[in-house]
Amino acid sequence: MLIKKLLPLFILTLPLTTQASPPAQVINLMDVKADEFDRIERFNRKSDALPLTLDELTQLQKAGVKSPTLMEMMRTRRVMAVADAPTLLNLKKAGASDDMIAALSAYVVKPNDHFKLNIVLNLLSPGSMAQAPYLYIEIWNPRKRRQEAILYADLRDKLTDANTSLKGSSDRGDPLLANNLARINLSSRIRSRGAGPLDIRVLIGQEAGLMTLSSSDGKPLKGVETYSISYPAVSLDNRCQAEIQLSRDSVMRERYAISQGRVHCRWD
Predict the structure, then answer these.
(1) Of the candidates 72, 62, 51, 73, which has an alpha carbon nearest to the alpha carbon of residue 96?
(2) Which residues contact 129 (CB under 8 A, 6 or more apart)?
(3) Nearest Cα to 131, choosing from 259, 248, 260?
(4) For 232, phi and psi rounded to 5 degrees?
(5) CB 207 within 8 A of CB 255
(6) Which residues, in sequence order, are CB contacts of 178 under 8 Å at separation 6+?
(7) How far is it, in rounded angstroms, from Cα 199 to Cα 68?
(8) Tell me, what's the pLDDT at 163?
(9) pLDDT in tens, 5-62
(10) Nearest Cα to Cα of residue 119 among 240, 227, 225, 242
């Protein structure tokens, strides 16, 4: 009888022997001091101004702006620079404190590791475009003598794409000879950390499966058009656009040539 009376008590008290979870943190906002709110606000504060440059930091320092103020400006505005060893050493030689050097290393704008390449192709052809060529674009680093990327496209397939615009017109000299104009838009993300000069090499032809547009000595193959750009180590923007016009031979239907071309980039 005594066991029957104790058993319910044992069952009820058993959960009390398990380890209780730690209580959740309770914060009374009335106890938070005003200076703590100020620190939170300063930490989250960002400036809409453009990032500082190393020259601007040097000028401000020479003008007497103290290190804490400079570091706050670096944090809120960021710095348009590369925090490599030579840059940090030059900053130290210019009289920067260790805290300034650490701030520069922490608050520089992220270095470029890619750029966006938009390609606008205009194909001009008398008559049918059934023999449209392959397009090859090679990104070549002349300083490191290596290929950064190879892009290709079968333009015959792209002519049936919904994003391709087609227009037709008649030659005034011969109304029976129709001129067709196709505009093809392509884009790609080019991965590259090789700041400095880059060559954008373009080739069109009927041969499929090319993996390089360069010879063994790094020079472009015959028929390759080259457009040079300067790729910055760090920038606010990273867009390039290649505008290329292809014209088809009026007799050799499979023969196209680059009649015009240019590449322009936006880094600011």
Answers:
(1) 62
(2) 123, 156, 159, 180, 182, 248
(3) 248
(4) -75, 155
(5) no
(6) 126, 127, 168, 169, 170, 171
(7) 43
(8) 56
(9) 444 444 444 444 445 555 666 666 656 555 555 555 555 667 788 999 999 998 998 8
(10) 242
> Is domain 114-266 classified as CATH 2.60.40?
yes
Q: Rounded distance, CA 123 to CA 247, Å?
A: 6
Among residues 99, 198, 105, the alpha carbon closest in space to that of 147 is found at: 198
Name the amino acid, one letter, at 178: A
Neighbouring C-beta atoms of residue 132, cutoff 10 Å:
25
Determine which of 8-22, 77-91, 173-187, 252-266 has the lowest per-residue pLDDT on average.
8-22
DSSP letters along the chain, please?
-HHHHHHHHHHHHGGGGSPPPPPPP---GGGS-HHHHHHHHHHH----SPPB-HHHHHHHHHTT--HHHHHHHHHHH-B-S---HHHHHHHHHTT--HHHHHHHHHHBPPPP-EEEEEEEEEEEEES--TT--EEEEEEEETTTTEEEEEEEEEHHHHTTSTT-EEEEEE-SS-TTSEEEEEEEEEEEEEE----EEEEEEEEEES------SB-TTSPBPTT-EEEEEEE-SS-S--EEEEEEEEEE-SS-TT-EEEEEEEEEEE--
Report the alpha-carbon distance of residue 110 to residue 223 in Å, rounded. Answer: 38
Residue type, 211: M
One-letter amino acid at 78 equals R
pTM assigned to the model = 0.74
The residue ranges of every structural domain in the chain are 46-107, 114-266
Residue 153 token pair: 């496209």
Q: Which residue has the tokens 């457009």?
A: 227
Query: Rounded distance, CA 265 to CA 32, Å?
Result: 51
